[in-house]
Amino acid sequence: MSDAWPFSPPKKILLATDLSARSDRALDRAVQLARQWNSALTLVHALEKPDVNPSWWAQYEEMPSWRRAADPSKEVEEQIRRDEQLDIGPFDVRVSQGDPANIVMETAEKEQADLIVLGIARNEALGRMMLGNTIEQLVRKSPVSILVVKNRPRAPYSHILAGTDFTEESRFGLVMATRLFPEATIALMHAFEMPYRSLMTDSQLSRDFSAMEKDTIKSFLDDSNLAPEARQHVITMIEHGSPPVMLGKYATERGADLTVIGAFSRSLAFHLFVGGTARRIVDAVPSDVLVVRAPRPD
Questions:
Q1: Tens digits of per-residue pLDDT, 23-54?
Q2: 23: domain CATH number?
Q3: Is the pTM of this model over 0.85?
Q4: Strand 258-264 relative to strand 159-163: parallel, antiparallel, unpaired?
Q5: Is 293 exposed, middle or buried (0-12, 13-18, 19+ CB in 10 A)?
Q6: Cα distance from N-terminal residue to C-terminal residue, the chain
Q7: Same domain, 124 and 252
Q8: Same structural domain for residues 124 and 180?
Q9: Distance CA 155, CA 47 (A)
Q10: What is the DSSP letter of 50?
């Protein structure tokens, strides 16, 4: 991780690609962000072993000898450089054999990447298990922030949904959202399930409780010490319901193009805000998802 991060936009972006057509969405977003932030871009591909991905190896063995590189990794690298004509100047390519999640994390460490970008493609090396084990491993174990791209980018992110459970990692996610995307509107949502709320028949008690909720999120926002120009882009919401469900509904109905979550490094699960696995959050929202890796307090 470069010294400038997290106090400035990422200087080094690592794009994990499975070479499928759907992964072009992640590629397009990574290129857009690299241009926006003037960041270096490296592409990484995990070449799974023959017993895990036999179809690729069968195709490789059937190639004419004059087309088949002696090293399969070199074959993939050459394919990437042929196919990916990126209009951003020089870019690096890294290809290694092994488990996709491990390869991505190892490459991120070697390259000192600040951000990992990946898509949700299926049926090829990296994408085959993307919505299950691979993405969950990366979100839980990677020391680097992760951007999961679902949609083809039409423009820079402009409508961001930030989830909070009032923890320090969610505060870090909010602050980073304002720094990375200073022109975007940011909807800060605290969603939680309150058992027996429907039985709260005392209207005054209900009003008092609502006032307390609003005071809490206002205090959270005040304590985040956002710059005045950043603060004016933030709106707040208190919603009663499952966080993944409420996030998904808002992103769908209001057209948020990015959902931001803050999480500690190597956490086994998000705190109260998520209350479950990474797959629930990624599946629940139609937008892209940025998991901001928050530093643990000393």
A1: 788 989 999 999 999 999 999 988 766 555 65
A2: 3.40.50.620
A3: no
A4: parallel
A5: buried
A6: 18
A7: no
A8: no
A9: 32
A10: T
